[in-house]
Automatic annotation (TrEMBL):
The lineage of its organism: Bacteria, Bacillati, Bacillota, Clostridia, Lachnospirales. InterPro entries: Aminoacid_DH-like_N_sf (IPR046346), NAD(P)-bd_dom_sf (IPR036291), THF_DH/CycHdrlase (IPR000672), THF_DH/CycHdrlase_cat_dom (IPR020630), THF_DH/CycHdrlase_NAD-bd_dom (IPR020631). The gene is folD. It comes from Dorea longicatena. One of its GO terms (cellular component) is cytosol. Homodimer. The keyword Membrane does not apply. This is Bifunctional protein FolD.
């Protein structure tokens, strides 16, 4: 049976740091605050929103929600973003993605002030990740994957790492971050030929396929470490990952479960970025 890599343990250390920073800010009469912009009612957005709000409450971070209907006009979204950009009481912004199809995601995302882009979605923040420069904030989900590996003492140097998924939200930035940690990285996607044999070659598998349970026992072998980034809501309304957990845990050495894995760490990183943004903006 695989060892479980639990988010809770990783969070404990991050949360201590966040609390200390929040206390320091509060001593200067500054309350760090997150702006949450949600368009429509996607279940995974709402799941993240609830977790983020709860964590804000626990850590003494304020938040304000900006809820827009799924059929909102682009100008309305741009107006909301300009409003949060100007509001000095809001230090970081979480804009859920993907956006409804009728909106120009590129234009909307890049309207966000880079110093408030705590989920690293603007082109400039993303460029920082790809060039290995300290520019803006890295996206929270791939950062959470790296944090889990680091916390459990899993060194990437020289390891074969397969990333499944090539999205800009997770797959591509995760590949760059792994490369920076000296891994030999392969990125698989829907056009990859014979994916099971490619994935079996990996020492570490980072799964961001975006589909519930698609990575089953046929892709895995013993000795592997599996990081499951997937957050899917199944028919019963429960969270599940992109890995078929029941099959995987019988085969691999270690795995992050869903829930209780990467998701909670993503939320911690988000809060850490908001608090850091509040510090930088009040210098
Ligand atoms: N720009 C953008 N960035 C995102 O990172 C992003 C997004 N849009 N759109 C939606 C998806 C979904 N997502 C979730 C993260 C955590 C939980 C979650 O439930 N976290 C729990 C723990 C769950 C667990 O234990 O695995 C918690 O923080 O306590 C859910 C969903 C982020 N996403």
């Amino acid at each position: 049976m695989a060892k479980l890599l639990l988010g809770k343990e990783v969070n404990a250390s991050i949360n201590e740091e966040i609390k200390a920073k929040v206390e320091k800010l509060k001593a200067q009469d500054i309350t760090p605050a997150l702006g949450i912009i949600r368009i429509g009612e996607r279940e995974d957005d709402i799941a993240y929103e609830k977790s983020a709000a709860k964590r804000c409450e626990t850590l003494g971070v304020a938040y304000e929600k900006f809820l827009l209907p799924a059929d909102v006009k682009e100008e309305e979204v741009l107006k909301t973003i300009s409003q949060v950009n100007k509001n000095d009481k809001i230090h970081g912004v979480l804009l859920f993605r993907p956006l409804p199809k009728h909106l120009n995601e590129d234009r909307i995302v890049n309207a966000l002030a880079v110093e408030k882009d705590v989920d690293g979605i603007t082109d400039l923040s993303m460029a920082g990740v790809f060039m290995g420069k300290d520019m803006g904030y890295a996206p929270c989900t791939p950062s959470a994957c790296m944090k889990v590996l680091e916390h459990y003492g899993i060194d990437c140097t020289g390891k074969k790492v397969v990333v499944i998924g090539r999205s800009l939200v997770v797959g591509k930035p995760a590949a760059m971050m792994l490369l920076k940690k000296n891994a030999t990285v392969t990125v698989c996607h829907t056009r990859t030929v014979d994916m099971p044999s490619v994935v079996k070659e990996a020492d570490i598998v980072v799964v961001a396929a975006g589909k519930a349970g698609v990575i089953d026992g046929n892709y895995l072998r013993e000795g592997q470490i599996v990081i499951d980034v997937g957050i899917n809501v199944n028919e019963e309304g429960k969270l599940c990952g992109d890995v078929n957990f029941e099959e995987a845990e019988k085969i691999v050495d270690a795995i992050t479960p869903v829930p209780r894995g990467v998701g909670g760490v993503t939320t911690s990183i988000l809060l850490e970025h908001v608090v850091d943004a509040a510090i930088v903006q009040n210098r």
